[in-house]
Specification:
250 residues, alpha+beta, Hypothetical Protein Pfu-838710-001, eight-stranded antiparallel barrel
């Protein structure tokens, strides 16, 4: 991780306040998976085109998450089956800043990602009255149907283009855990480019194409459960799972 922090030193910095210009709660997302050995080369190539988020002198931050689903895995199965208008519900903790959120993400039938969230006082898999009301207003799932399925964690840094129209998150070393198993993908990097539909193509996409890194769908929730559980439905994820086990896991 220190190598990555050193690669980020030449970047000009932005603050959390600056990111208010690029919240992008309604956006398009592109994801790319690659080996961590490629990341220093990519960062060197784009350092003049992006800012990096810095908070209290730090640029790489840890995230903890808990994902929820129904007992019959409606959200997981919708994603696996390629359904439009699919949801994810999670708690997220920004570890260093001790901020917690309850979040709902909708991928609609036009390929847009719409996220809603509220502050969650405690990072525990239980819902207050206000949180229950938020869930039932913003998702089709009654809280009685929701149960925690997996925990995930990763480290992230965030880049912003110089025009403040695009945000790029770079996730490092994702790990997943349930009550029985855990797995760490310490060689995997997930780059997600988040932008308004009207934005110009992100500069980082050109670099990824030159390195023959192709766009790749990747759901941390679905990948985590598929790696941890033997009996869950995962036929449509098998090519990605084979690649992960071959290239990115211990």
């Amino acid at each position: 991780m220190n190598l990555i922090r050193n690669c980020l030193l030449p970047f000009n910095k932005v603050t959390l306040g600056d990111l208010d210009q690029v919240k992008l709660m309604d956006r398009t997302d592109l994801k790319y998976c690659l080996h961590i050995k490629l990341l220093p080369q990519i960062l060197e190539a784009i350092q003049s085109d992006y800012f990096v988020l810095e908070i209290k002198g730090e640029t790489v931050f840890k995230y903890d998450n808990t994902y929820f689903d129904t007992p019959d895995n409606q959200m997981f199965n919708c994603h696996h089956n390629g359904r439009a208008n699919r949801f994810k519900i999670r708690m997220r903790s920004y570890v260093e800043s001790n901020l917690n959120f309850l979040e709902i993400k909708l991928k609609n039938n036009k390929g847009r990602t719409i996220k809603e969230r509220i502050i969650k006082r405690e990072f525990i898999p239980e819902f207050t009255t206000d949180e229950a009301a938020f869930l039932e207003q913003a998702s089709p799932f009654p809280i009685q149907q929701l149960e925690p399925k997996i925990k995930s964690s990763f480290s992230r840094f965030t880049l912003v283009d110089k025009e403040f129209t695009q945000r790029v998150t770079v996730d490092l070393c994702p790990g997943f855990q349930n009550s029985e198993n855990k797995v760490l993908l310490d060689k995997l990097v997930i780059i997600e480019i988040k932008q308004d539909k009207s934005s110009n193509p992100a500069k980082i996409i050109n670099i990824l194409q030159q390195l023959r890194v192709r766009q790749q769908g990747f759901s941390k929730y679905c990948v985590g459960r598929s790696l941890l559980e033997d009996k869950i439905k995962k036929n449509n994820f098998k090519p990605l799972l084979l690649k992960i086990k071959k290239e990115y896991s211990n």
